[in-house]
């Protein structure tokens, strides 16, 4: 059960745990960054944790201010030969440390961080058992970027986070393998749990059969350039504008009214995306240049959409090659065009992959099972705080610079 889900630090000043301590329920604080894919993940955590009767959960979804986001982007910009401008997540750690000062952790059994890097303050002090989720390790990130390796200071800090954690939740097999091979983490400490919605038979859409109008290609991604939106638009206009619509769900895509049979949806709420946009499409295309996983691939599978995706990082966990879609090397434009062409022209293939995607979503990616295993693992590796009648409380919010770091709501 969830006691509180908030994106406002101010709510912590008046927060109280329920009176009395139920010995059958663990108290867990989930701290997630409310940005990029982690925003979706934080809300998935809250949704699935709310169904558990063996946990009392406080969810804190932190939303960095614009100036803080700019600082972090500058911090992560490669400098020279694969070096970072600043030490590993230094500014981020200051923010999370200040937030944790607002909470009394006396009666809390564990803290879960998403992503892991923001747990540095707890990793250093070891004041409370903690777990964390990651979509990539530092070693994997730097390999993707073509660098020789993680700068030594960064690697040491990252290793400390993983080694001091009670459990590390890997979003994909790609990440899990790196934890064991690059960081020598014991297999029992790491677990693969894919981030995905809850797919029930009733919620899953079916393939659109016997379409008399134009078929629909779907692109979803606010980071228009990085996700490969411009090249998909070019392919569509050059080859398929008379045979298929291209739907673009992106808050940053530059809508061009001169493009033929392109529907610019703009920024789309997650609910509308799941309930309306995905079920109305025929093929999902994810030609990203750089990603660690792509939660949107799981959402597309749940809607019964064959996917054509870049083969990189954790995407093979989300698309079964030749069964639920196609995985193409990121810069192989001919490969993308050929795969999309096959799905547009071969209805039996499209229907077969659609049904396979639904089955894959229901039986393998299903968030209820994935998060269930994750929570079971988290609870199994940490002993509960002694049961009692103690009342957890949060200390009053402190003044100073930290109050300006996070965008909060009254």
What do you see in this structure?
This protein is an alpha/beta fold and 410 residues long. It contains 14 helices and 15 strands. The longest helix is centred in the C-terminal third of the chain and has 19 residues, at 347-365. Mean pLDDT is 83; it is low at 75-88 and 387-410.
SSE layout and pairings?
Elements: E1 2-6, E2 26-33, H1 36-49, E3 55-62, H2 66-76, E4 78-79, E5 83-84, H3 90-101, E6 110-114, H4 120-125, E7 130-134, H5 138-144, H6 152-164, E8 167-170, H7 173-181, E9 190-192, E10 215-220, H8 229-240, E11 244-249, E12 262-264, H9 270-277, E13 283-286, H10 295-302, E14 307-310, E15 325-328, H11 333-345, H12 347-365, H13 367-380, H14 402-405
Parallel strand pairs: 1-3, 2-3, 2-6, 6-7, 7-8, 8-9, 10-11, 10-13, 11-12, 13-14, 14-15
Antiparallel strand pairs: 4-5
Helix pairs in contact: 1-13, 10-12
- Please indicate the percent range of residues in DSSP E strands (runs of 2 or more): 15-25%
Which class of the largest domain in CATH terms?
A: Alpha Beta
CATH architecture of the largest domain: 3-Layer(aba) Sandwich
End-to-end CA span: 24 Å
Shape: elongated
Number of helices: 14
**DSSP strand tally:** 15
CATH superfamily grouping of the largest domain: Glycogen Phosphorylase B
Total number of distinct structural domains? 2
- In the sheet with the most strands, the strands line up as 1-3-2-6-7-8-9
CATH topology of the largest domain: Rossmann fold
How many strands, what sense, and barrel or not for the largest sheet? 7 strands, parallel
Poorly predicted regions: 75-88, 387-410
- The proportion of residues forming helix, as a percent range, comes to 25-40%
Written as H for each helix and E for each strand, in order along the chain, the element string is EEHEHEEHEHEHHEHEEHEEHEHEEHHHH
Class by alpha and beta content: alpha/beta
Give me the Rg, rounded: 22 Å
Q: Tell me, rounded to a whole number, the average pLDDT.
A: 83
